[in-house]
Amino acid sequence: MNTSITAVAPSSRSRMAAQPHPAHMQGFSLVEVMVALTIGLILTLGMVGLMGGNAQNLRLTESLSESQENARMAFELIARDVRQARDTSCGPLDSSSVRKLDPADANPDWWEEWWPLRGFAGDEDSNAADFGTARGERVDGTEALQLQETEAIALISKFNSATSVLLTSNSPSFTANEAVIVCDLDNASLHTIAAVAGSTLTLAPAVSITDPDNPQFQVARYLATTWYIGSNGRADEGGRSLYRARLAPDGTIVREEILPGIVDMQVRYHNRSDAIDNFMDVDDARLNDPGNLTRTKNNWDQINAIELTLVSESTQKNVATSDAAANNDKGLVSQQDRRLRRTLTHIIALRNTH
After folding, report:
1. Can you give the pTM of this predicted structure?
2. pLDDT attached to residue 326
3. Is 320 exposed, middle or buried (0-12, 13-18, 19+ CB in 10 A)?
4. To the nearest 10°, the Cα dihedral for 254, 237, 346, 142?
5. Domain ranges of the chain
6. What percent of the chain stands above pLDDT 70?
7. Is the Cβ–Cβ distance between 66 and 314 less than 8 Å?
8. DSSP letters along 91-157, please?
9. What whole-number distance in Å separates Cα of residue 244 and Cα of residue 258?
10. Which uninterrupted H or E stretch holds 42?
11. 248-to-175, 179, 206, 220 alpha-carbon distances in Å
């Protein structure tokens, strides 16, 4: 008897039962997705806040370093001129012993008469820079400091005439139009060089020879500067800088920006006969005698040290957060645009005192 086995294909119902049902598949629920997104958002915001805080701290550090470095450099530059002030190259002389460029001029320019140390109040014109808001002009209400000195000396071999001197060597390389001082131990006078021929200088005005047997023996290059706070034309950086007006070798006045961010300057003065800690303001009656110019200049000759205060601000604004309500940072932060502010004071002694 023949027996045959026939394979029966599984029915479609059986195949469907063998496959996994979608309801049994694993995944994230809506709540889990929302929780994950929330955690991710918190972490992202934390990282953004951390990076923003680091960037702000970097700006704060940079601004603090900038304001301190600018103030330090300003002190060094001004101090160099202060220490050298009054040096005629023949030693310090009373202002009355140094003849101005034109003795007949009743209103000489600021550099045309010997006034080696002179301060100007915030409302007093220095003549070196006009008050104004244009670039390089002096900021109204800020003080100024005038200083005069000499450098690069040459010995006089002989006087060819009252307007012509022969130098032992023109090693300073004097040029025409330069201002010079001709001096001895007792007297000095301001002149400009009309012409140079080798080691021979032609001077104007003529030198008043004090003693034909023992005439003035030295010529020195004359330097005149006035330090002040000026407008720099960059409002986004605060708008103020430390400026210097100086007499250039060609006889012109150059006004140059020295350091940004120096926004104010105050100077107090010490009389050599006063107590060591007694400094006077620039408008003190002991420094100024409106009716007697000679006495006023002699009063300034008695100053042997200055107390220099500089206020520096960061050129970046909105560096510090506001604390104006508590008024705890008025001296440390500019209240208008939140710039870091530092006020530093140094005492500088003059080397050339009488």
Report:
1. 0.80
2. 43
3. buried
4. 60
5. 69-349
6. 83
7. yes
8. -B--GGGEE-S-TT-SS--TTSS---EEEE-TTS--SSS-BSSSTTPBPTT--EEEEEEEEEEEEEE
9. 7
10. helix 30-84
11. 12, 9, 22, 15
Q: pLDDT tens across 276-330, in order?
A: 989 999 999 888 887 788 888 889 999 999 999 999 988 877 777 655 444 444 5
Alpha-carbon span 54 to 296, nearest angstrom:
56
Q: How far is CA 260 from the centre of its chain?
A: 6
Beta bridge partners, 305, equal 270, 349
Tell me the CA distances in angstroms from 140 to 124, 188, 335, one per residue in order. 9, 35, 20
Question: Which residue type sits at 101?
Answer: L
Query: Scanning the structure block, which residue is given the tokens 């806040």?
Result: 49
Give residue 253's identity as a one-letter amino acid code: I
**Vertex 277: Cα angle to 275 and 283 (nearest 5):** 90
| 183-237 pLDDT, tens digit each | 988 889 999 999 999 999 999 999 988 777 778 889 999 999 999 999 999 998 8
- Distance, in Å, from the CA atom of 88 to the CA atom of 93, rounded to the nearest integer, reads 7
Q: Which of 250, 287, 265, 290 is nearest to 343 (CA)?
A: 265
